[in-house]
Design goal:
14% helix, 1 helix, two-stranded antiparallel sheet, little secondary structure
């Protein structure tokens, strides 16, 4: 029962983290839907680059350690060690090693009070 309560609490927290605030009639993204700063703490589910390239699984690279900075057995955009200007990924395109991702920057007006 305690494990079920912990899972439920985690689900409620995640739902709150991806909530959307409305400011002056426009939707502003928060939490997992956007990044702040360089996106070093971004742990969202975007998996496509700005040009539409699919991201490669982070397990298929050896430049950054697995488990660090949200890296693991997935192909979601990340910015390990804040190494780039915003979240990015290695691409499946053999001619383009990596590319920045299509992740919006968080709207400061939507910050929690």
């Amino acid at each position: 029962a305690a494990a079920a309560a912990a899972v439920l609490a985690a689900g409620v927290w995640e739902a709150a983290a991806i909530s959307v605030r409305t400011q002056e009639g426009s939707a502003a993204v928060r939490g997992y839907d956007c990044y702040e700063g360089t996106g070093a703490s971004y742990v969202g589910l975007k998996d496509m680059t700005v040009s539409g390239r699919a991201c490669k699984n982070w397990m298929d690279q050896d430049k950054f350690p697995q488990g660090a900075d949200g890296l693991g057995n997935h192909n979601y955009c990340r910015n390990p060690q804040g190494s780039k200007a915003k979240p990015w990924c290695y691409t499946m395109d053999p001619q383009v090693e990596f590319e920045l991702c299509e992740v919006p920057e968080c709207d400061p007006a939507a910050a929690d009070p």
